[in-house]
Amino acid sequence: MKRLREFYALIEALECLGWWRGLSPFALYPCKLVCNSPLTELPIFCRVDRLVMSYISISMMKGSWQLMGSEKKGFAYLALAGFTAVLASSGAIAADRDGSISIEEHTIQAPFNLTHPVLPADLLPSPGKELVTLGVDDNLQKWLGIYTLNTDNQRYSLFQKLLLPPSFYSFDISDESDNGQEKQVLYFLSSEHIVQYVPHNSAAPFDVIADIQSVTLKKRPDFISRGEFVRDLNGDKRADILISDFSQVRLLLGKAEGGFEHQSLPITPQVKVNKRGAEYIESKLYISDANFDGRDDIIKIAEGELEVYPQNETGMFNPLASYIPVRQAISGVDWWNKRDAFGESLDQSSLIYRKVEEVRDINNDGITDLVLRYTKSSGVLDRVNDYEVFLGEKLKDKLVFPAKASSVVRAEGTLTGLEFIDIDNDDKLEVMVAGFDIGLSQIIGALVSGSIDQDVYLFKMDNNSLFQAKPNVSKEVELSFSLTSGQSGSPVVKLADINGDKVQDLLLSDGQDRLKIFLGDSGGKLFKSRSEQFNILLPQEGGMLSSDDLNGDGKDDILIKYGRQDDEKLLSQFKVLISG
């Protein structure tokens, strides 16, 4: 009876998804459906169009079907890998040229395949920002390309192409607000050195500024990653460098006269022990004033407390930590990296877990606040992710947090991708999160269509620095994936000031060839209800779209790079969209 009820529930879900609407003539075809709750296989009959039947038959003759990580032979599955490729087609919709935004598009062909999003940075004395590109050639050699802006025609051209040493495994760029000088600096890491890019020294463009020890021991890493080791640690508007090894964290603090002052703190990396050994992960560190002396401190998340390394009057940090207890059972480690006494992942059938997401002042009252990701799970498909906000309080000159969350960011589905940003320029941070429904019917629909709906929620603080129970803005985008390649894409969800009014605008993808821009509204709604739309080929991976004010006109411009899920011919290509 239980299986029969599940069967009818699945049929009802398929009808709701419109699985067999509009398909004619119909035919019955034996299919097998894998269910995750409980883990059973139910033989059912689905009505399938003749075109689909022939496609299934061809696919079965060519080989086996792969579903949910397991290989199944001899049956057609409801997850028809490639089925959407046969049926999916959509007409292009012309861009709204009568709107208040104008965008000029330029396509640039790079001399190598790009492996990272295009990064804007003010590296040279010339006007405008330079574009930093990294990639590989046909021999898998790594390259650095720097592009400069011609302000007369608003176009970029290649300034410098450099072969990167094979020992580099990470790079980072100092932020504009972190640098007391006018220009930003590009840094690289190897297992033994910190290296600075010197643009105008073509004979020796990479200058070693310090010898280091690192948790990365590989001399010739397979790839180079974007790191987060350059930041202003002590609030002096100069770039500092933070490097973790197996027993400590090494600080290189920028000096006014140039160079760095060195210091070490006894901060160890996270250790993930498994049956074959151990994996070392750099501990996430937060920068915020935790003792009300007006100076930023370095904060590590310990189990159930904050481990604070206070900054002194010289801009250095006390190596002796102080501790701030938290009344919740918090952790700085994601639950999926935790292991139980048997060395296994945590049991998801009865999981309650709080992981620290942010330690910062989010409401501009001068007091550090705490944001936790609250996970409650009673099964793989029954999970809740909420974000709990604990507004910090000053009690007897000490930082304390309330026992109960001040407010909770909650919406339908499983929330992820927490982002804080001041959208309306009121010095208080808004919240943007993504939401997914992970029920059985959603999984079936996703397997059939090759995509799943993703909700985008935005929450604004009220006058009491609290987030309301319902989001102020809710939008929907589409996340795509491929059962054939095992890769998933992501939609474009981006905040940027495209029209230069000092209010953030919301950029969302609509399919792969249309970009929707909802202009910011400082009147309280956050965004205009109607979008302006532009026809542009978007990347499958939405994170490859970035934005910055490239020419100094106060308007954010858009950069687009394509990846391995896109057409292979686009790997060496990127687009620059200049806002007019």
List the helices and strands and how they pair.
Layout: H1 2-16, E1 28-36, E2 39-47, H2 50-62, E3 65-67, E4 70-72, E5 76-77, H3 83-87, E6 103-109, E7 113-114, E8 119-121, E9 130-136, E10 142-150, E11 155-163, E12 170-173, E13 186-189, E14 193-197, E15 206-211, E16 225-226, E17 230-231, E18 240-244, E19 249-254, E20 260-265, E21 270-274, E22 277-281, E23 285-288, E24 297-302, E25 305-309, E26 322-325, E27 330-331, E28 351-360, E29 369-379, E30 382-390, E31 393-395, E32 398-400, E33 407-409, E34 414-421, E35 430-436, H4 440-449, E36 451-459, E37 473-480, E38 493-496, E39 505-509, E40 514-518, E41 520-521, E42 526-527, E43 532-535, E44 545-548, E45 557-561, E46 573-579
Can you describe this structure?
- With 580 residues, the chain is mainly beta.
- The chain contains four helices and 46 strands.
- Strands 7, 8, 9, 10 and 11 form a five-stranded antiparallel β-sheet that branches. Strands 15-14-13-12-16 form a five-stranded mixed β-sheet, with no helix packed on it. A five-stranded mixed β-sheet has the order 27-28-29-30-33, with no helix packed on it.
- Residues 2-95 have low confidence and may be disordered.
Keywords:
five-stranded mixed β-sheet; five-stranded antiparallel β-sheet; 42% strand; mainly beta; 580 residues
